[in-house]
Design a protein that fits this description.
100 residues, three-stranded antiparallel sheet, two-stranded antiparallel ribbon, 4 helices, 5 strands
C-alpha cells in the first residue's frame, strides 16, 4: 500500500516508505480522531509530538479530501488517519487506560 499511494511522490518512492517505517497507522472516524487527539494531548510528550511537524517523533494526522466523481465539489472524508512513532504506542495505551 505504501509503495502504491504516496502523497505527491512517484509510486515506490523510498522517502514515503521510510517516513512510515516504524510508525503505527490508525484510521478512525474523524470525530473519534478529534476526541483521541484531545485525550492524548493531556500527556506532555504526546502533546508536543502532536503539535510539531517534520520531526522523527512528530505525529501526522490527516483527514483526506475526496473528489466528487461527477465533477462537483470535493468532500472531506468521514475518517481520519493518524500516523505516529511506534515507540509512542505504549504511552498512548497508558493514557487511554488512565482515562478509563
Amino acid at each position: 500500500m505504501l509503495a502504491a499511494s504516496p502523497p505527491g511522490l512517484a509510486a515506490g518512492d523510498g522517502r514515503w516508505i521510510d517516513f512510515c517505517a516504524d510508525r503505527a497507522w490508525l484510521e478512525v472516524e474523524a470525530e473519534d480522531a478529534e476526541h483521541l487527539v484531545g485525550l492524548l494531548s493531556r500527556d506532555p510528550e504526546l502533546r508536543l509530538a502532536l503539535s510539531q511537524w517534520g520531526l522523527t517523533e512528530s505525529w501526522w494526522c490527516v483527514r483526506p479530501l475526496l473528489p466528487e466523481l461527477t465533477g462537483g465539489r470535493g468532500k472531506t472524508a468521514t475518517s481520519a488517519h493518524l500516523l505516529f512513532p511506534r515507540e509512542h504506542l505504549e504511552r498512548v495505551v497508558n493514557v487511554l487506560r488512565e482515562t478509563g
